[in-house]
Structure formats: structure tokens, C-alpha cells
Amino acid sequence: MAGSRMKLELSRVVQGRSRLGVLTGLGRTGQHSLEVPGCLLYTHFGTVPHLTQDTLHTLSDLPSVTQVTLSHVAEHQEVLEEFKDGFRKFAGLHDTVLYCALHDPAAACATGYTTNKTVSVWGSGGRIELTVAKFMALQKTVQPDWYQSMADGETWQSNTSRKRVRKSVDRTLAHLDECLLEHQKSQELEGVEVFGVVEGGDILEERIRSAKETAKRPVAGFCLDGLQTGCMEQALRTQLITAVTKELPEDKPRLLQGVGRPDEVLACAEAGVDLFESFFPFQVTERGCALCFDYDVSPDPERAGRAPPAVLELEENRETPVVAQQNGDLNLDERTQMTSFEIDLKDKRYQDDFRPLVEGCGCYCCKNHQRAYLHHLLVTNELLAGVLLMIHNTAHYLGFFRALREALAGDKLDLLKRRVLREGGRQTERKD
Amino acid sequence: MSFKKALSAASPLTLRVVAECPVTKARACDLVLPHSAVSTPVFMPVGTQGTLKGITVDQLEGLGCHICLGNTYHLGMRPGPDLIEKANGLHGFMNWKRNLLTDSGGFQMVSLVELSEVTEEGVKFKSPYDGKEILLSPEKSISIQNSLGSDIMMQLDDVVSSTVTGPRVEEAMHRSIRWLDRCIAANKNPDKQNLFAIIQGGLNAELRRTCLDEMTKRDVPGFAIGGLSGGEEKDDFWRMVTLSTDHLPREKPRYLMGVGYAVDLVVCVALGCDMFDCVFPTRTARFGSALVPWGSLQVKQKQYAKDLQPIDPDCKCPTCKRHSRAYLHALFKSDTAAMHHITIHNIAYQLTLMRSVRQSIVEGRFPEFIRTFMKRMFPSRDQYPSWAVDALASVNVTLE
Question: How many CB pairs under 8 A join A and B?
Fold first, then answer.
């Protein structure tokens, strides 16, 4: 495979595990970069949910990598093939790096359809079965800058046997080898990066095996699959990720799939994850909620030009952090249930609350609108609610990642964790 | 007249007739309202519940919209006038810095809710949210609209479907006059909010004439032509429109309510109307129907799956500048943003149409514009709607 242009330049490694750095050499001409730990820009078929390019670009510092998934793309294969010029052009995307994933992290996945040779995705018209050949044909028409290889990650159910987990590891490696073979033969994929996918369910030995084997292949980086929110306790997830990253080369990035909640992000970044998918703001938006958790750990709260975002009041009757489920049970509720990082704007208390969603937040929504208005839009089922919430939630989430990087740079990770997880007492209420 | 001068004249509305078509009854005017100046003829998009569905106020401003509608009935129910007043009026609540027009809630009484009773007092109806009985009187309607703080308020009229005939129509017409007077008396902010009268009389020329004669005696800043656009025959519709404009003062704006199809807009401008509103362009957008100079395009249809052109190659809206029919077709299967793209396009289409109409009036070539417009819209002469042909002929425009 042609020399990978993607380079991970680490500036810090904390306690041998969490890393701070920049992923450079991204895109066809290698001119894009992405700071890590960081997140990708989550889209539905190239569109950030609810947003047109105008509303999207009210956000500054968007991730330079846009994620698109085959679950949205696969049913349009014919159209894209006729178009010939790749997905980015078809979608009228801005200048961005395009990453192609397999499954939509925000969508529940039906099980029981994976075979030795195929995985399935669900489009608007139903199930689409993918062989490696079809998978690679799709990559050739999408023409991403980077993609994950085909993988069998169906190990999250509570009754997944050891045998089944082993199969997922074996199949995923087989798929990877086939993908790479096809990749090397394909002119259209010249310069495109491939990530291998580490599987292994909740079985430590299988995870290590998968990591070791995948690391032997000439991939540009690693996706960690089968660890998504709702599938296992964070403690186990941390343990598995820690073991996996030990087997992976330090100089290649690790992308964790299906995990987006702030507390989980912090724990997984600590364990050595570099990249996350940013579907969490979308999930929060869909339940009519706004992210508001505090992530500011700067020494001077009134630092010039930017006031820290803060929860404006201590919420009584707050939702307690989501209780961990039994290992292996994919609790779908956990994926959609409200967390302690957000406020429920449908609540009556916001009816006449004329403050912005988060004081000091510079996003379009907070600069122009108030909680009372968002409450009204949600109560009346207005489409604009989704637009405004998506803008704010994305801005807040990106701010969180920025804070994470700054905390790593300034040795303040513990402080950040305490702030985000609200251990150690009340939030201070900022005076207007 | 400069904007500042207009405001200092202590009238919240000034109309300056910039050009009049020598052939038809069309006018191009500058309508100066408290929040900004509006060029007419103008199409006003409808933002029923304090939002244009899926579109931010910045996007709406960016499309060149200077006036849009809010709905007194809906907003009066949720979130209610008191809350909106606390939020600095509807402008403050939705953060719209330009003009707002609110209707009275009268139409919704008829179209939406279980009508209990219409009496001289007002309209009694059952709230759809808690089943309580509510009375919407002229005073109550104006009170809500005063709280909303709209630049133009509509009187509460006794609304009767245009397909109804008989003594009810006459009763409603006379009552609407009395209610107009009560609305005028009830307006707490005559120096900031303009109250428009609504001409009724159904499809009866005599009744309409009476209504016109009476209502034009009142010193209101503008007149709406109501009771139409409700399913009546187009042949009757245009005759009532032109009768109305014949008897409305030249120097006050004429607002034709509920009209929004492109052909209807062009014809009714020729008949002398200045302002229009309709939910159609924005509503149809959400179903994937994009408005174009040759009709409409159902983006969700299979035939557009591989169509790489924009909706309209000549359109300069954000949607057409960036996206193809094929992409939008596909996006409808994945995300709600597809609707927003079409909504933006349709608003742009309507506003651009009116801008072109105005320009042609100013440049003295409106009849020519009409002919070109019709040719583009209909594949052949025999497909021109006969009512449109007749209506245009009545104002001296013959279509070959």
C-alpha cells in the first residue's frame, strides 16, 4: 500500500496512556489536520442533522473530518456510481476530509444477519447486505479520504458466547485482509487510508488477540468496535481499551466507535483513545435537551474575551448519572435516556426563563435566543428547535473536546474530570 | 421620503407609490413600517408559531424578507400573550428585527376549531388544549396583538367560508364593520401598531360594495381583502378582488389574504394588490415540492434521483448554489434538513418573483413581464387558466 500520509504527532503522553497531539497529513492533498483527542463531524449522508451549510457554518472550529456512514450511503450506490465524482462532490460538502464508517452510531442495529462473508446495514428501504466486494465497490464510489474496513461487531448482546466473539474477531480480520487486497489493487483508492477494526466483545483475551493481529496489517489506524454506550460498564470498557492499546503502535490513531457521553469520553481518552464520533449532540437534540455541563478549568473565570460556560443553577431533581447496566446488555435506553450533562427544555421551569441555554456560550443559538423560546418551539413541535439545539449542542461538545485537550496540555485532567462529573460540590452560579 | 422622516411623521405606516402600471392596476410602492421599509408588491412568508418552520431569522433576513406573519390564535394559545409581552413582544421572543404582521385569529376560528357560537360579542370556541371555552372578541384579539407588538394587526372579522351563501354572508359583513370599530377603539398602540380593516361580503358584489363604502370611511392605515381564497371558483374570486381594489384608496396598501400561488400573485398584482401571504410555499416545501418558474418539481420523485442539476439553474438561493436535485432527493431519506433546503428555495422563489414583478412595474414593462411569465409557466396557450386570461384582459393585458 502506498506510504500513508496520515501522521500522528504526539506532543504529550500522560501516564503512558492518554495522548495529546495532532493527526496530520489528512485529505487527498494531505493539507488537513485534526487535534487529538478530538471528534469527527457526525452526519446523515453528509448533512449534519437539521443543518444546512448556512446554519452549520455559524459554528467555528468544526472538526476537519466529516463522517459519513454506509447505513445512509449504501442504498444510493447506483446514483453515486453514475455520478462518478465521489460523495464529497455529490453532497456539495465544504472543504473537509471525508471518513466513511460502516454503521450509524446513533441508530440501533438489528442483529442476526451477519454471516461469515457479509454484514448488513439498514437504509431507508430496508436491509442491505454487504460482501467485501460490495463494501469495496462502495468505497470506490464514495471516494472517501479514509474508511474503516468491513467488520463484524455484533458482540454486544448479553448472551454473546465466547465462540461468537471469537468468530467476530476472525471474520473481521478476514474482512480486513480482503479489503486491503482489493484496496491495493484499486487505482481509485490510491492515497486513501484504511483503519483496521479491533473486535473482541467483552473478552479480554479476544480483545488482545484482535489488537495484536490487526496491528500486524498495514493500516493507518484502528477503530475500536463493540464497546458502545449501553453495552458494558465503563470500568470494563476502560480495562479492555487499556489492554488493547498496549498492543497497538503508539504512532497510529485509535478511533472509538459508539461512545460519546462526556464521562465516558474522558475515561476512554484517559485509556488511550484519540478519536470519537460526535453523535452524542444529535442524541441530546433529539430528546429536546441542551448540553450545559461545565468544562471550564481555566484559572481565571473572567479571562479576557470569553466567559466560561456554566450551569446557571443547581438543578433540583436532576437526573442521576446513568446507572451502569449488566455487562453485555445493550441497554438501548441508555443510548437515548437523558443524562446529567443536559437540561430538558420541555420542562415547565423553562417557560419563562429568558436566559440563553448556557451563559457565555458563543453559539448562534445562545447569542440569539432564550430558553423560553426553545421551550416554546419544543412544546409546539417546531422544526426550528432541532436546528437551534443541534447548533448549540455541537458547539458545546466541541468546546468540551477543546477543554479536554487544554486539560491534557496543562496537567489539569483531574480537575476537568471533577468539573464535568460534578464531584466535589455545587456549581457556582454566575451572576449576569 | 427618507426612513427617518417617515418615522418622525408619527404614523407607523407610510405608503409611497413609486410607480403605477399605465396598462393594468398594478403599483410598486415603498411601504415604511416601524421596523424597516418594505418594497411592494410583497409576498409575506408565514411563521405561524413565532418561527418559520426550520428556518432561522438570519436565514430569513438573508433571503431579503422584510415582513412575515405570526398567528394570533396559535401564539395566543401557546405561549400566550403575557409571556410574549415579557419577552419584549413577538419581535423579542423570536428575535426578528424586521416587520411582523399578525392576523386576528378569526380565520383559525373557522378553519381549525370546534366552533361553538358566533355572537355579536365575539367568537366562542373550545380550546384544543384543555377543552375550556374561550371567547375571542374584537377587544381580546386586539389585546393579544398589542402584546405581540406586531407592526400590522388585523381586525377581528366575522369569517364566513367563501362557499357559503345567503343571509349569513350579509350578517357577517355588517358585523365585521361593527367589529372593526371596536378593534379601532381597543388598539392601545395606534402610534406603533397599524390596524388593517378586512373587506368582507363574500362573492356578492353588492355586499362587498357596501362593505367597501363603509370601511373606507374609517381612518385605518391599510385594507385587506378577505373572505376569498377559500375554495371558491376562481372566476368569482378575481371579480371580487378587482371590485375591491377599484374602491380602495390609492394611497393605502391593499393586502390580499391567503394568496400565494405564483399565477395568482402575478394576476392579483395586475388587479391592484400590494401585499400577499400564504402558507403554501413553505408547507409544500416540507413535502418535497420545489417551486420553479415552470411550475413545481417533486424532488422526492424517482425521476430526480440522478438529476444533477440544481432545482433551478437560474436560482441564486443557497440551496441551488450548492445542491443538486439528486442530493436533495437522497437527503429526504436521511435527514429533516432536506425540508429546510426546499423551504429556503421556495421562499427565495416567492421573494424573487415579487422583486421581478416590482422591477417590471418600475420600468414600465409589467404587461410584457406577465406574458413572459405565463409562457414560462404553461406549456401552451390553451393551458392558460381561463380565469387568469379573463382577469388580465379586464386590465388590458391580452395573452397571445
Answer: 125
- For the record, the C-alpha cell of A283 comes out as 442524541
A52, A383, A387 member nearest B341 (Cβ): A52
User: Could you tell me if B81 and B56 are in contact, meaning their C-beta atoms sit under 8 angstroms apart?
Assistant: no
Q: What is the DSSP letter of B356?
A: H
Question: Domains of chain B, with CATH numbers?
Answer: 14-277 (3.20.20.105), 285-394 (no CATH)
Q: How far is B301 from chain A (nearest CA, A)?
A: 14
Q: Name the helix (H) or strand (E) containing A368.
A: helix A364-368
Q: Which helix (H) or strand (E) holds B376?
A: helix B366-377
To the question of whether residue B200 is assigned a binding role by annotation, the answer is: yes
Q: How many angstroms separate the CA atoms of A203 and A197, rounded? A: 16
- How far apart are the C-alpha atoms of B179 and B181, rounded to whole Å? 5
| B47 annotated as belonging to a binding site for a ligand | no
Mutual angle of helices B386-394 and B234-246, in 10-degree steps: 20
> Which of A104, A380, A381, A391 to mutate: most B Cβ within 10 Å?
A380
Q: What is the pLDDT of residues A253-263, one digit of tens each?
A: 999 999 999 99
Provide the ipTM.
Answer: 0.95
The three cell numbers of residue A161 are 458466547
3-state SS, residue A339 = coil
Strands of B194-199's sheet, edge to edge?
Answer: B42-44, B275-277, B254-256, B222-225, B194-199, B152-154, B99-103, B67-71
The predicted-structure confidence for A170-214, as pLDDT tens digits, reads as follows: 999 999 999 999 999 999 899 999 999 999 999 999 999 999 999
Cβ(B127)–Cβ(B177) under 8 Å? no
Helix A383-409 crosses helix A371-379 at what angle (to 10 degrees)? Answer: 130
pTM for the full predicted model: 0.94
Contacts 24+ apart (CB under 8 A), A410-416: A411/A14, A412/A297, A413/A14, A413/A18, A413/A266, A413/A270, A415/A297, A416/A266, A416/A295, A416/A297
If phi over 0 gives left and psi between -120 and 50 gives alpha, with beta otherwise, what is residue B229? left
10 Å Cβ neighbour count for A31? 13
Pair type for strands A18-26 and A32-36: antiparallel
What is the predicted pLDDT for the residue at A288? 98
Helix (H, G, I), strand (E, B) or coil at A85: coil
Residue among A369, A379, A388 whose CB faces B78 most closely = A379
B175, β-bridge pairs? none
Grid coordinates representing B84 are 410574549
> Helical H runs in B63-137?
72-77, 81-86, 89-94, 106-111
The edge-to-edge listing of strands for the beta sheet with B133-136 is B115-118, B123-126, B133-136
